[in-house]
Amino acid sequence: MTILDDLTVTPQAPPAATAPPPPDLRQATGELRRLKEEVGRGPDPAATRRQHEKNKLTAHERLQLLFDEGTFTEIEPLRRHRATGFGLEDRKPHGDGVVIGWGLVHGRTVFAYAHDFRVFAGALGEAHAAKVHKVMDLAESAGAPLVSLNDGAGARIQEGVTALAGYGGIFRRNVAASGVIPQISVMLGPCAGGAAYSPALTDYVFMVRDTAQMFITGPDVVQAVTGERITHNGLGGADVHATASGVCHFAHDDEEACLDDVRYLLALLPSNNREMPPAAPTDDPPDRGTDALLDLVPAEPGRSYDIRAVIEEIVDDGEVFEIHEGWAPNVVCAFARLDGHTVGIVANQPAALAGVLDIQASEKAARHVSTCDAFNIPLVTLVDVPGFLPGVDQEHDGIIRHGAKLLYAYCNATVPRISLVLRKAYGGAYIVMDSRSIGADLSFAWPTNEIAVMGAEGAANVIFRREIAASDDPEALRRQRIEEYRTELMHPYYAAERGLVDDVIDPADTRRVLCESLAVLRTKRAVVPARKHGNLPT
């Protein structure tokens, strides 16, 4: 045995491959920038072109219009879904069809999410829903308004019940934030099925004509079940919901005008229920005379006029932001400013159905009163109401319970409340329109006011029915009794003499009186009973 036999030969390993050096921070940052620019452009230029061909903007373009220039901060732009099956594992675009974040609107923080129709047609899946949940939670925690820009095809069918659970999380957050922060839904595309319930749970719904539709079941399902043929817009377009259903508060012709009004509405509202609405400087003196009212409102209780002209004469600079303009026109609900401070206005409209209260008007006004109360906005009620609308349909459709909603809303409101009777105020409708008896802080009337159970003609016909029937000249006696009733019980100072009206004022002093009264009531503190919540009439 030789020495060589005792040696073990170890084979030489090949030289190790040289690993590429890690990228430096500048290279990594450059890659991140390129990735985010790609995400911002969207998945496909053709998809962007198709969106524009439909007169629709992309999600990022809409957010640029909503927010003050250069203030939008996006979060979770790189998120991707983790679903598999039905080809989803091969399609994982960044963002997952929704853009979320925050920015400034007139210098105040607002949160928003915007569906990106170019990605899965804006349909909601698990990751998409998680992003929406995130921004909703942030908005509530920060005490800032939330705006949703809706343009999506509903639940992502490929993800099944997971997508439905995502909607459930949105609905629950809508309800939790209700009355805590302003929630505004802007409909810029389709919104079908269960997806429509989130906008319905928010404070205000904006829609763009021709491009936006909302319905639970689409035209094809309607035709299959009922045989009725109808278009998408005919079933759930902006004008349908703005005039027939009342789902839509504001309808616009284009996205630019729509988002401009969203910005204006946000300027009138507080950021949350713990703040007062922002005040705006005005050159309109609070003691400005309103002599024009003497000619705008006819003294005769049966003559028509447009209450909008009255409101414009009273408020700062004549600027009125009307809500639900096309639905239930016999009552006007609006925001305006008096001496720079936001007020909510509820007013009977003699130019539509003589200003009577019916089912729709009661619901419309009740909702406005409730929203104002939730966000610390004082209420001014202008009363010129002949009563509730009579009729079999009204009674059978529930005018009692619907009218009770308005009564409940006023009685429940703790914000400053001022009512002003311009002309007639008859029966239960007088009580419901924020009379002193249900808690108005201050109640005023013009010298043309007629406050009574009913009009003099109707009252005389009831009280003196037998006497008039037995008279040799029934018509002459009827006229005599009408005048007696009006003189005894309906003269302009009858309510004031009994303390049910604080003062009868000169119409020319209306603006001054309202501004002074609101200033006094600005520090109002209401004590409410301890309870979980009331039971709203349904």
TrEMBL record:
Residues 285-533 form the CoA carboxyltransferase C-terminal domain. Residues 12-24 have a biased composition (Pro residues). SUPFAM superfamilies: ClpP/crotonase. One of its GO terms (molecular function) is propionyl-CoA carboxylase activity. GO terms for cellular component: acetyl-CoA carboxylase complex. Residues 23-281 form the CoA carboxyltransferase N-terminal domain. Residues 31-41 have a biased composition (Basic and acidic residues). It holds the Pfam family Carboxyl_trans. Gene3D superfamilies: 2-enoyl-CoA Hydratase, Chain A, domain 1. Residues 1-57 are annotated as: Disordered. This is Acyl-CoA carboxylase subunit beta. It comes from Streptomyces ferrugineus. The lineage of its organism: Bacteria, Bacillati, Actinomycetota, Actinomycetes, Kitasatosporales.
